[in-house]
Write a structure and sequence with these properties.
Distance between the termini: 36 Å
Strand order of the largest sheet: 4-3-5-6
Strand content: 5-15%
Largest sheet: 4 strands, mixed
Number of helices: 8
Number of domains: 2
Shape: elongated
Radius of gyration: 21 Å
């Protein structure tokens, strides 16, 4: 397959990350079809969308029709977009599945007003995400991830030897958790190095146990650490 530019992330193998344009394409598809379903009364479209989301979440992107359309038809011509953490849009799809399923059930049991309201909610939020990039489900994921990390993980100290710092740092050091294909991770690292910050980068793909230990729910995640390992400030994530 010829592409406008070579892919840095394989859409079917590099599942930790995703082309940021793919979720927006998916949201546009869901939004337009949900709106069509409510306005025309063809509510089974909502059930089909819910089933498609469920299949894609369970079996992967190869079984997600909007994903296939984007990766096989759009991306080869438009090129690869920024690469981002795949977890927030995946969570947004899970939320969409629940709401679309509830809308379908509403129609089935005769609560058409409830079904239409939920269908319009999905349509509105999906089209908002597609047109502006603001993904409500992604924001919910980020807030929940931060709260989960604060509650479960004691992230007030980092073992510098554990994250690959073999020599004691001369001063404050930035410890960044990232993914080698993540566009924002590379941009963050470049900013830190341009500012002359001493830095160690942890590849969460290779060191998943460190990501779990330090409660890394998003990449990039970064903290400023004192020479003795104390966390001074959170910079990202």
């Amino acid at each position: 397959m010829s592409t406008a530019t070579p892919r840095t992330a394989d859409p079917y193998r590099d599942l930790d990350v995703i082309d940021a344009r793919a979720p927006r394409f998916n949201q546009a598809t869901v939004g337009v079809l949900s709106l069509l379903a409510v306005l025309t009364g063809w509510w089974p479209i909502l059930a089909v969308l819910a089933a498609q989301l469920a299949i894609g979440l369970r079996f992967g992107r190869r079984y997600c029709l909007p994903c296939l359309a984007y990766f096989e038809l759009v991306q080869p011509r438009a090129g690869e977009g920024p690469i981002e953490d795949a977890r927030p849009p995946r969570f947004a799809n899970q939320v969409g599945l629940v709401v679309l399923g509830a809308a379908s059930v509403g129609y089935v049991v005769g609560l058409s007003t409830l079904g239409a309201g939920l269908g319009m909610l999905v349509a509105g939020l999906a089209l908002l995400a597609a047109t502006t990039g603001f993904c409500a489900g992604c924001q919910v994921y980020r807030m929940a991830a931060r709260l989960h990390g604060i509650r479960v993980t004691s992230f007030d100290r980092v073992d510098l030897l554990e994250v690959g710092m073999r020599m004691p740092p001369s001063g404050e050091i930035v410890v960044a958790f990232g993914h080698p294909l993540c566009t924002d991770c590379h941009a963050f690292e470049a900013r830190m190095r341009a500012d002359g910050r001493e830095m160690v980068v942890v590849d969460v793909r290779e060191h998943r146990w460190l990501a779990r230990k330090y409660g890394v729910a998003l990449v990039p995640s970064a903290v400023t650490v004192a020479p003795d390992g104390r966390v001074i400030a959170r910079l990202a994530g």
